[in-house]
Amino acid sequence: MKVRKHVCIIGLGKFGGELARNLALEAEVLAIDIDADQVNEISAYVQRALCLDARDFAALSAVVSSTFDEAVVSMGGSLESSILTTLHLKQIGVPRIHAKALSDTHGSILTLVGAAEVIFPERETARRMAARMLNPNLLDFVPLEQDYLVRDVEPPKVAFGRTLADLDLRACLNVFVLAVRKQIEPHFVFLPGPDYLVDRGDSLVMIGRERDLGFLETVQGLPVCPVVPH
């Protein structure tokens, strides 16, 4: 079964709040803000929501530990607050920290104190929109039906060392592999051929019905089209 990530979101404005809601659909989310109203608003959508001042190291380290997979610092207009919070998360030992920046200088400082990724939400939204306008892709013209989606799926253990042709997932479960996300030397293999060998650590980017993709995530074997291990 796929292990759910543990993620901390600090700062619950428009960007942080929307991010927390979406992540909570498939991850364990701790949402933090100094504003009690923001915390109350998000509490119904995430696994845990707390009102505290993330600039206070003792308070933050009491609820966030190095066992969290990732954290996002999405604090509003205070450069000092986001920089200090990012530094605290680094000191706590959170493995990967994303931080929202208000300027290039702010972003540079966030990187220096421990942010693995600096986010400029408006810039990135504009770039994605420009890319879609200049290079539209098929999914922009053919919206997926409600019960179809594209999802990263960790293949069951029985798939390791087998080719996609051996697994024949399209016939078994009516799902199609669009790409493979490689964890070692991270990169994508797009439209892998039938002779592609599934390796440990691979994630399969697949399109299919939600129930079929969910079934594939929860089984250890492929009972519809059984694969005999070596």
Describe this structure in words.
The structure is a single chain. By secondary structure, the protein is α/β, with parallel strands linked by helices. It has helices at residues 14-23, 36-42, 57-63, 79-92, 104-113, 121-134, 138-141, 164-167, 169-173, 210-218, and strands at residues 6-10, 28-33, 48-51, 70-73, 96-100, 117-119, 148-153, 176-182, 187-190, 203-209. It has two domains: 6-127, 3-Layer(aba) Sandwich (Rossmann fold); 144-218, Regulator of K+ conductance, C-terminal domain (Alpha-Beta Plaits). The protein contains ten helices and ten strands.
- In CATH, the homologous superfamily of the largest domain goes by the name NAD(P)-binding Rossmann-like Domain
Number of domains: 2
Give the distance, in angstroms, between the N- and C-terminal Cα atoms.
22 Å
Mean pLDDT: 86
Which class of secondary structure composition applies to the elements?
A: alpha/beta
CATH architecture of the largest domain: 3-Layer(aba) Sandwich
Radius of gyration in whole Å, from Cα? 20 Å
Spatial order of the strands in the main sheet?
3-2-1-4-5-6
